[in-house]
Amino acid sequence: MAELEKPQIVELATRSVNYTLFDAQWVPASARFVALGNYARGTGALEVCAVENGQIVKKQEVEKPNAFKCGTFGGTSFEERHLATGDFKGNMMTWDLEKLSQPVYNVQAHDSIINCIDGCGGLGVGGGAPEIVTGGRDGCVKVWDVRQKEVPVADISPAAGSVARDCWSVAFGNSFDDDERCVAAGFDNGDLKLFDLRTMSVRWETTLKNGICKVQFDRKDINMNKLLTTGLDSKFQVFDMRTYNSKKGYASVITESHKSTVWCGAHLPQNRDVFITTGGNGSLHLWKYKYPGNRVKEVKDEEPEGVPGEVQEINRVTLSTQPISSFQWSADKLGLGLTTSFDQQIRVLICTKLNKI
Protein backbone atom coordinates (compact mmCIF):
# COMPACT_ATOMS: atom_id res chain seq x y z
CA MET A 1 0.00 0.00 0.00
CA ALA A 2 1.48 3.33 -1.06
CA GLU A 3 2.18 5.75 1.77
CA LEU A 4 -0.49 8.28 0.76
CA GLU A 5 -3.09 5.56 0.19
CA LYS A 6 -2.79 4.35 3.79
CA PRO A 7 -5.14 5.58 6.48
CA GLN A 8 -3.49 8.61 8.07
CA ILE A 9 -3.56 9.48 11.79
CA VAL A 10 -4.04 13.25 11.98
CA GLU A 11 -4.07 15.44 15.08
CA LEU A 12 -7.25 17.51 14.96
CA ALA A 13 -7.06 19.49 18.21
CA THR A 14 -4.96 19.64 21.39
CA ARG A 15 -5.55 21.07 24.84
CA SER A 16 -3.02 21.46 27.67
CA VAL A 17 -4.26 20.99 31.24
CA ASN A 18 -2.80 21.66 34.68
CA TYR A 19 -3.37 18.17 36.10
CA THR A 20 -2.16 14.61 35.44
CA LEU A 21 -4.45 12.89 32.93
CA PHE A 22 -5.44 9.25 33.39
CA ASP A 23 -8.52 8.77 31.22
CA ALA A 24 -10.91 10.49 28.82
CA GLN A 25 -14.30 9.29 27.56
CA TRP A 26 -16.56 10.50 24.76
CA VAL A 27 -20.02 11.49 25.97
CA PRO A 28 -22.40 9.22 23.99
CA ALA A 29 -24.15 10.80 21.00
CA SER A 30 -22.40 14.15 21.33
CA ALA A 31 -19.22 16.04 20.42
CA ARG A 32 -18.34 16.38 24.13
CA PHE A 33 -15.95 14.34 26.23
CA VAL A 34 -14.93 14.02 29.87
CA ALA A 35 -11.29 14.09 31.03
CA LEU A 36 -10.28 12.58 34.40
CA GLY A 37 -7.13 12.90 36.48
CA ASN A 38 -5.55 14.39 39.56
CA TYR A 39 -4.16 17.76 40.57
CA ALA A 40 -0.72 18.06 42.16
CA ARG A 41 -2.33 18.42 45.59
CA GLY A 42 -3.90 14.95 45.23
CA THR A 43 -7.47 16.04 44.49
CA GLY A 44 -9.56 14.84 41.57
CA ALA A 45 -10.03 16.66 38.28
CA LEU A 46 -13.18 16.15 36.20
CA GLU A 47 -13.42 18.32 33.09
CA VAL A 48 -16.15 18.38 30.44
CA CYS A 49 -14.98 19.64 27.04
CA ALA A 50 -16.47 19.97 23.57
CA VAL A 51 -14.99 19.99 20.09
CA GLU A 52 -16.09 23.19 18.36
CA ASN A 53 -14.72 24.53 15.07
CA GLY A 54 -11.61 22.38 15.32
CA GLN A 55 -10.86 23.52 18.89
CA ILE A 56 -11.23 21.85 22.28
CA VAL A 57 -13.38 24.13 24.44
CA LYS A 58 -13.76 23.64 28.21
CA LYS A 59 -17.41 23.61 29.30
CA GLN A 60 -17.15 22.58 32.95
CA GLU A 61 -14.43 21.80 35.46
CA VAL A 62 -14.87 20.48 39.00
CA GLU A 63 -12.43 19.47 41.72
CA LYS A 64 -13.26 16.53 43.99
CA PRO A 65 -11.55 15.30 47.19
CA ASN A 66 -10.05 12.15 45.64
CA ALA A 67 -8.08 11.76 42.40
CA PHE A 68 -9.87 9.98 39.52
CA LYS A 69 -8.21 7.00 37.83
CA CYS A 70 -10.76 5.72 35.29
CA GLY A 71 -14.25 6.22 33.88
CA THR A 72 -16.88 4.70 31.58
CA PHE A 73 -20.31 5.42 30.11
CA GLY A 74 -20.86 1.71 29.31
CA GLY A 75 -23.40 1.06 32.06
CA THR A 76 -25.75 3.98 31.43
CA SER A 77 -28.58 4.79 29.02
CA PHE A 78 -28.60 7.35 26.20
CA GLU A 79 -31.24 9.30 28.15
CA GLU A 80 -29.21 9.58 31.39
CA ARG A 81 -25.60 9.44 30.12
CA HIS A 82 -24.24 9.03 33.64
CA LEU A 83 -20.46 8.72 33.92
CA ALA A 84 -19.12 5.98 36.23
CA THR A 85 -15.72 6.72 37.81
CA GLY A 86 -13.18 4.96 40.01
CA ASP A 87 -10.90 6.94 42.31
CA PHE A 88 -7.70 6.54 44.33
CA LYS A 89 -9.60 5.84 47.59
CA GLY A 90 -11.58 2.93 46.14
CA ASN A 91 -14.87 4.78 45.57
CA MET A 92 -17.02 3.95 42.55
CA MET A 93 -19.40 6.80 41.70
CA THR A 94 -21.78 7.74 38.91
CA TRP A 95 -22.24 11.37 37.87
CA ASP A 96 -24.90 13.38 36.08
CA LEU A 97 -22.88 15.78 33.91
CA GLU A 98 -25.53 18.47 34.37
CA LYS A 99 -25.29 18.27 38.21
CA LEU A 100 -21.69 17.55 39.16
CA SER A 101 -21.99 18.84 42.74
CA GLN A 102 -22.96 15.39 44.10
CA PRO A 103 -22.69 11.85 42.65
CA VAL A 104 -25.87 10.01 41.70
CA TYR A 105 -24.46 6.76 43.15
CA ASN A 106 -21.54 6.27 45.53
CA VAL A 107 -20.11 3.07 46.98
CA GLN A 108 -16.83 2.11 48.68
CA ALA A 109 -15.99 -0.52 46.08
CA HIS A 110 -12.37 -1.38 46.96
CA ASP A 111 -9.92 -0.98 49.85
CA SER A 112 -7.59 1.21 47.80
CA ILE A 113 -7.21 2.61 44.27
CA ILE A 114 -9.59 1.44 41.53
CA ASN A 115 -7.28 0.84 38.56
CA CYS A 116 -9.88 0.03 35.92
CA ILE A 117 -13.58 0.14 35.12
CA ASP A 118 -15.88 -1.03 32.32
CA GLY A 119 -19.61 -1.04 31.64
CA CYS A 120 -22.06 -3.21 29.71
CA GLY A 121 -25.80 -3.38 29.09
CA GLY A 122 -26.11 0.37 28.61
CA LEU A 123 -26.16 2.44 25.40
CA GLY A 124 -27.82 -0.47 23.60
CA VAL A 125 -24.62 -2.55 23.77
CA GLY A 126 -24.97 -6.04 25.23
CA GLY A 127 -27.96 -7.98 26.54
CA GLY A 128 -29.06 -8.10 30.16
CA ALA A 129 -29.00 -5.53 32.94
CA PRO A 130 -26.70 -2.49 32.84
CA GLU A 131 -23.67 -3.35 34.98
CA ILE A 132 -20.28 -1.87 35.87
CA VAL A 133 -17.15 -3.89 36.67
CA THR A 134 -14.22 -2.54 38.69
CA GLY A 135 -10.73 -3.88 39.37
CA GLY A 136 -8.49 -2.65 42.15
CA ARG A 137 -5.09 -2.77 43.80
CA ASP A 138 -6.62 -5.09 46.42
CA GLY A 139 -6.77 -7.80 43.71
CA CYS A 140 -10.58 -7.87 43.68
CA VAL A 141 -12.86 -7.75 40.63
CA LYS A 142 -16.39 -6.61 41.47
CA VAL A 143 -19.52 -6.25 39.34
CA TRP A 144 -22.05 -3.56 40.28
CA ASP A 145 -25.67 -2.82 39.40
CA VAL A 146 -26.37 0.82 40.28
CA ARG A 147 -29.98 -0.11 41.09
CA GLN A 148 -28.62 -2.15 44.01
CA LYS A 149 -27.03 -0.12 46.81
CA GLU A 150 -23.77 -0.98 48.57
CA VAL A 151 -23.51 -4.70 47.65
CA PRO A 152 -21.86 -5.93 44.42
CA VAL A 153 -23.66 -8.35 42.13
CA ALA A 154 -20.46 -10.42 41.93
CA ASP A 155 -17.30 -10.27 44.06
CA ILE A 156 -14.24 -12.14 42.79
CA SER A 157 -11.58 -11.80 45.47
CA PRO A 158 -8.19 -13.49 46.05
CA ALA A 159 -8.30 -16.66 48.17
CA ALA A 160 -7.78 -16.15 51.91
CA GLY A 161 -4.09 -16.11 52.75
CA SER A 162 -2.93 -15.62 49.15
CA VAL A 163 -0.97 -12.62 47.92
CA ALA A 164 -3.28 -10.08 46.24
CA ARG A 165 -2.06 -8.94 42.83
CA ASP A 166 -2.97 -5.58 41.31
CA CYS A 167 -5.84 -5.88 38.84
CA TRP A 168 -4.83 -3.49 36.06
CA SER A 169 -7.61 -3.99 33.51
CA VAL A 170 -11.13 -5.40 33.23
CA ALA A 171 -13.46 -5.85 30.25
CA PHE A 172 -16.98 -7.16 29.65
CA GLY A 173 -17.67 -9.56 26.77
CA ASN A 174 -19.86 -12.43 25.53
CA SER A 175 -23.01 -10.44 26.40
CA PHE A 176 -25.00 -11.61 23.38
CA ASP A 177 -28.26 -12.33 25.24
CA ASP A 178 -29.93 -11.62 28.60
CA ASP A 179 -28.19 -14.52 30.38
CA GLU A 180 -24.62 -14.73 29.09
CA ARG A 181 -21.89 -12.33 30.21
CA CYS A 182 -18.18 -12.69 30.91
CA VAL A 183 -15.51 -10.49 32.47
CA ALA A 184 -11.84 -10.66 31.47
CA ALA A 185 -9.30 -9.39 33.99
CA GLY A 186 -5.56 -8.74 33.59
CA PHE A 187 -3.17 -8.54 36.55
CA ASP A 188 0.26 -7.05 37.23
CA ASN A 189 1.96 -10.48 37.34
CA GLY A 190 0.64 -11.51 33.91
CA ASP A 191 -2.38 -13.49 35.13
CA LEU A 192 -5.29 -13.41 32.68
CA LYS A 193 -8.62 -14.66 34.00
CA LEU A 194 -11.99 -15.08 32.31
CA PHE A 195 -14.97 -15.09 34.68
CA ASP A 196 -18.38 -16.42 33.61
CA LEU A 197 -21.03 -14.31 35.36
CA ARG A 198 -23.84 -16.75 34.52
CA THR A 199 -22.23 -19.73 36.28
CA MET A 200 -20.18 -17.54 38.70
CA SER A 201 -17.01 -19.48 37.94
CA VAL A 202 -13.58 -19.04 36.37
CA ARG A 203 -14.09 -20.11 32.79
CA TRP A 204 -10.42 -19.96 31.78
CA GLU A 205 -7.12 -18.64 33.11
CA THR A 206 -3.55 -18.42 31.92
CA THR A 207 -0.40 -16.50 32.77
CA LEU A 208 1.42 -14.27 30.28
CA LYS A 209 5.12 -13.43 30.58
CA ASN A 210 4.60 -9.93 31.95
CA GLY A 211 2.05 -7.58 33.50
CA ILE A 212 -1.16 -6.93 31.54
CA CYS A 213 -1.92 -3.23 31.05
CA LYS A 214 -5.15 -3.56 29.07
CA VAL A 215 -7.70 -6.20 28.09
CA GLN A 216 -10.52 -5.64 25.60
CA PHE A 217 -12.91 -7.82 23.62
CA ASP A 218 -13.42 -6.74 20.01
CA ARG A 219 -17.16 -6.59 20.77
CA LYS A 220 -19.05 -6.85 24.05
CA ASP A 221 -22.39 -7.85 22.56
CA ILE A 222 -21.49 -10.91 20.46
CA ASN A 223 -20.38 -14.47 21.13
CA MET A 224 -16.75 -14.11 22.25
CA ASN A 225 -14.65 -13.58 19.12
CA LYS A 226 -11.27 -11.98 19.90
CA LEU A 227 -9.57 -10.72 23.06
CA LEU A 228 -6.73 -8.18 22.96
CA THR A 229 -4.18 -7.90 25.78
CA THR A 230 -1.34 -5.37 25.97
CA GLY A 231 1.66 -5.63 28.26
CA LEU A 232 4.78 -4.27 29.89
CA ASP A 233 7.10 -6.24 27.59
CA SER A 234 6.49 -4.18 24.41
CA LYS A 235 4.09 -6.83 23.12
CA PHE A 236 0.39 -7.32 22.62
CA GLN A 237 -1.48 -10.56 22.14
CA VAL A 238 -4.72 -11.31 20.27
CA PHE A 239 -6.60 -14.45 21.35
CA ASP A 240 -9.13 -16.20 19.10
CA MET A 241 -11.91 -16.91 21.62
CA ARG A 242 -14.12 -19.06 19.39
CA THR A 243 -12.35 -22.42 19.87
CA TYR A 244 -11.21 -23.67 23.29
CA ASN A 245 -8.83 -26.61 23.71
CA SER A 246 -8.54 -28.04 27.24
CA LYS A 247 -4.79 -28.66 26.82
CA LYS A 248 -3.72 -25.61 24.81
CA GLY A 249 -6.41 -23.07 25.71
CA TYR A 250 -7.23 -20.40 23.11
CA ALA A 251 -5.01 -19.82 20.07
CA SER A 252 -3.24 -16.46 19.96
CA VAL A 253 -0.81 -14.32 17.98
CA ILE A 254 1.86 -12.19 19.72
CA THR A 255 3.19 -8.98 18.15
CA GLU A 256 6.09 -6.85 19.34
CA SER A 257 5.51 -3.12 19.07
CA HIS A 258 6.36 0.40 20.34
CA LYS A 259 9.75 -0.64 21.85
CA SER A 260 8.19 0.26 25.21
CA THR A 261 5.22 -0.63 27.40
CA VAL A 262 2.02 -1.04 25.37
CA TRP A 263 -0.30 0.97 27.60
CA CYS A 264 -3.60 0.60 25.85
CA GLY A 265 -5.46 -1.11 23.01
CA ALA A 266 -8.84 -0.13 21.53
CA HIS A 267 -10.94 -1.79 18.81
CA LEU A 268 -12.69 0.40 16.25
CA PRO A 269 -16.46 0.26 17.03
CA GLN A 270 -17.39 0.29 13.34
CA ASN A 271 -14.94 -2.50 12.36
CA ARG A 272 -13.94 -5.05 15.00
CA ASP A 273 -10.87 -6.21 13.05
CA VAL A 274 -9.18 -2.78 13.22
CA PHE A 275 -7.58 -1.67 16.48
CA ILE A 276 -5.03 0.81 17.80
CA THR A 277 -2.33 0.47 20.45
CA THR A 278 -0.62 3.20 22.46
CA GLY A 279 2.96 3.13 23.69
CA GLY A 280 5.09 4.35 26.55
CA ASN A 281 7.17 6.22 23.97
CA GLY A 282 4.21 8.42 22.97
CA SER A 283 3.38 6.53 19.77
CA LEU A 284 0.15 5.20 18.25
CA HIS A 285 0.12 2.12 16.02
CA LEU A 286 -2.91 1.22 13.89
CA TRP A 287 -3.45 -2.49 13.13
CA LYS A 288 -5.72 -4.85 11.25
CA TYR A 289 -6.36 -8.47 12.23
CA LYS A 290 -6.56 -10.92 9.33
CA TYR A 291 -8.33 -14.21 9.92
CA PRO A 292 -6.80 -17.50 8.74
CA GLY A 293 -8.43 -19.49 5.97
CA ASN A 294 -9.77 -21.92 8.56
CA ARG A 295 -10.12 -20.86 12.20
CA VAL A 296 -10.34 -24.44 13.51
CA LYS A 297 -7.86 -27.27 13.12
CA GLU A 298 -9.39 -30.73 13.43
CA VAL A 299 -7.07 -33.36 14.90
CA LYS A 300 -8.05 -37.02 14.73
CA ASP A 301 -9.13 -38.47 18.09
CA GLU A 302 -8.39 -35.14 19.80
CA GLU A 303 -10.15 -31.87 20.58
CA PRO A 304 -10.32 -29.20 17.86
CA GLU A 305 -7.71 -26.43 18.15
CA GLY A 306 -8.05 -22.78 17.27
CA VAL A 307 -5.87 -21.30 14.54
CA PRO A 308 -4.59 -17.74 15.13
CA GLY A 309 -4.69 -15.10 12.40
CA GLU A 310 -2.16 -12.44 11.46
CA VAL A 311 -1.78 -8.84 12.62
CA GLN A 312 -0.87 -6.30 9.95
CA GLU A 313 0.35 -2.79 10.74
CA ILE A 314 -1.52 -0.08 8.83
CA ASN A 315 0.24 3.04 10.07
CA ARG A 316 1.97 4.64 13.04
CA VAL A 317 2.57 8.10 14.43
CA THR A 318 4.44 9.59 17.40
CA LEU A 319 2.47 12.25 19.25
CA SER A 320 4.40 12.77 22.46
CA THR A 321 7.59 12.01 24.39
CA GLN A 322 5.49 10.69 27.30
CA PRO A 323 3.28 7.57 27.60
CA ILE A 324 -0.19 7.73 26.09
CA SER A 325 -2.31 6.56 29.00
CA SER A 326 -5.68 6.14 27.29
CA PHE A 327 -7.36 6.02 23.89
CA GLN A 328 -11.03 5.88 22.98
CA TRP A 329 -12.73 5.74 19.61
CA SER A 330 -15.97 7.61 19.03
CA ALA A 331 -18.91 5.28 18.47
CA ASP A 332 -20.71 8.07 16.56
CA LYS A 333 -18.03 9.20 14.09
CA LEU A 334 -15.85 6.75 12.18
CA GLY A 335 -12.16 7.34 12.85
CA LEU A 336 -12.55 9.99 15.55
CA GLY A 337 -10.26 9.26 18.51
CA LEU A 338 -9.47 10.75 21.91
CA THR A 339 -6.17 10.35 23.78
CA THR A 340 -4.61 11.45 27.05
CA SER A 341 -0.90 11.42 27.82
CA PHE A 342 1.41 12.17 30.73
CA ASP A 343 2.62 15.39 29.11
CA GLN A 344 -0.74 16.81 30.32
CA GLN A 345 -2.22 16.99 26.81
CA ILE A 346 -5.64 15.93 25.59
CA ARG A 347 -5.65 15.21 21.86
CA VAL A 348 -8.52 14.66 19.45
CA LEU A 349 -7.43 12.67 16.39
CA ILE A 350 -8.93 11.61 13.11
CA CYS A 351 -7.94 8.42 11.29
CA THR A 352 -8.75 8.70 7.59
CA LYS A 353 -9.88 6.07 5.05
CA LEU A 354 -10.88 3.47 7.65
CA ASN A 355 -13.89 2.61 5.49
CA LYS A 356 -11.53 1.37 2.75
CA ILE A 357 -9.52 -1.24 4.66
Number of strands: 30
Indicate the mean pLDDT. 95
Radius of gyration: 19 Å
Q: Supply the number of helical segments.
A: 0
The global form is globular
* SSE string: EEEEEEEEEEEEEEEEEEEEEEEEEEEEEE
Strand order in the sheet with the most strands:
1-30-29-28
Share of β-strand residues: over 45%
Largest sheet: 4 strands, antiparallel
Helix-residue proportion: under 10%
**Low-pLDDT residue intervals, each spanning 5 or more residues:** none
Measure the end-to-end span: 11 Å
Structural class: mainly beta
Brief rundown of the structure:
The chain contains no helices and 30 strands. The protein is 0% helix and 54% strand.
Notable traits:
single chain, 357 residues, mainly beta, four-stranded antiparallel beta sheet, globular
Report on the structure:
This protein has 357 residues and is an all-beta fold. The chain is built from no helices and 30 strands. The strands form eight sheets. Strands 1-30-29-28 form a four-stranded antiparallel sheet, with no helix packed on it. A hairpin with a 3-residue loop joins strand 23 and strand 24.
Secondary-structure blueprint:
Blueprint (H helix, E strand, L loop, with lengths): L8 E8 L3 E7 L5 E7 L5 E9 L2 E10 L3 E5 L10 E5 L3 E5 L9 E4 L5 E7 L10 E6 L4 E4 L9 E3 L10 E7 L8 E6 L3 E6 L4 E7 L4 E6 L8 E6 L3 E11 L3 E8 L5 E7 L2 E9 L3 E8 L5 E2 L7 E2 L3 E9 L5 E6 L6 E6 L3 E7 L6
Antiparallel strand pairs: 1-30, 2-3, 3-4, 4-5, 6-7, 7-8, 8-9, 10-11, 11-12, 12-13, 14-15, 15-16, 16-17, 18-19, 19-20, 20-21, 22-23, 23-24, 24-27, 25-26, 28-29, 29-30
